[in-house]
Amino acid sequence: MLKVGINGYGTIGKRVADAVAAQPDMDVCGVSKASPDFGADGAVRRGYALYSAREDRLSAFRDAGYDVAGTSEDLIEESDVVVDATPGGIGAENRPRYEAAGTPAIFQGKEADDLVETSFNARANFEAAEGAEYVRVVSCNTTGISRLVAPLEEAYGVEKVRATLVRRGGDPDQTGRGPINDILPDPITVPSHHGPDVNTIFPDLSIDTMGLTVPTTLMHMHSLNIELESEPTSAEVRELLAEESRIFVVEDDLAIDGTGKLRELARDRGRPRGDLWENCVWGESINVQDSELYLFQAIHQESDVIPENVDAIRAMTGLADGDESMQTTDEALGIGL
Ligand code: NAD
Question: Of residues 28, 40, 43, 140, which has the active-site annotation?
Fold first, then answer.
């Protein structure tokens, strides 16, 4: 069994840990945290060995009653691969520590593309990460766009993507984020930085993006207009997307009118933390006019990158090829609504 360490046990790290623990070919050898808060309590209750991110915080963990296995240095030594899910920018500081230990590492969306050998999305470029030591799983929004573009590109060719990203103000636990009563063009400059991030996965794709931030914590919403090179019907596109395991085409009769009901569906289905690992594309919104495709998709920012982290581990270590890895991940997690 491959030993995976999780450095940074927050919104993403705790979900990656549970996803790794559910796989047949890998184990969580420990998780590292900066402070002994409720997240540390959750890790211990799930049976994960707990490490302190810093030497000088060891006493804080011990004073709070935690039996700490060591520092993140020890965790890095112990691990075959580390998933670094620390806040943006800290991954770059951590890379020399992984290099010193000879431990391959996966970084997350906020880190720069040039920190790693390749940015990663399982559906679009699994092969690029095969054998790599340092890989970045792209952001939640870029993951959502990449999963959509990959099958469209293969089936019809993509001339141009135009996307407006309506982004949640913060995650539910980010009490300091906003806005609480406003709609922000974010960034105000157009096009936004999201398009170039998608180009780290599809270097030749023509894409322009605009961003807004709104007062919700539930999900992001993408409004997409994609010029295709051929002219499929709306029904054909709907069928194509429905065949993708990580795209959930929301059927009309479910009467789901927004992100609140989507998350409620996930809770009703017994999903852990009410997570939605799949892109949620409204079937009724899929509309092709003169080779221009329009649709709305909702992206659960806290969870869509989780299966991608599991697949990146397999790509880097050679545990499986892309199709086999995605299938194993999907089965272990129960992906597919
Ligand atoms: P978070 O703040 O929820 O979690 C970060 C965790 O890292 C916290 O538990 C913190 O205690 C810990 N930490 C801080 N400094 C550390 C250190 N030096 N060593 C070890 N642990 C340390 O952050 P998050 O939302 O999980 O984001 C992590 C990364 O994932 C970022 O790059 C972010 O851009 C990316 N990401 C986040 C989301 C999202 O919506 N939350 C979605 C996709 C990608």
Answer: 140
280 catalytically annotated: no
Main-chain phi, psi angles of 174, to 5 degrees: -90, 80
Among residues 99, 81, 102, the alpha carbon closest in space to that of 312 is found at 81
Ligand 1 atom nearest to CA at 9: 9
Domains in the chain with CATH codes: 2-138+305-333 (3.40.50.720), 140-299 (3.30.360.10)
**Burial, 24: exposed, middle or buried (Cβ in 10 Å; 0-12, 13-18, 19+)?**
exposed
The pLDDT, as a whole number, for residue 129 is: 98
In ligand 1, the atom with minimum distance to the C-alpha of 93 is 18
With 90 as the cut, is the pLDDT of residue 337 above it? no
Q: What are phi and psi of 320, to 5 degrees?
A: -165, 160
pLDDT digits (tens, 9 = 90+) for 125-179: 999 999 999 999 999 999 999 999 999 999 999 999 999 999 999 999 999 999 9
CA-angle at 172, arms to 281 and 267, nearest 5°:
55
Peptide bond before 96: cis, by omega within 30 degrees of 0?
A: no
% the chain with pLDDT above 90: 100
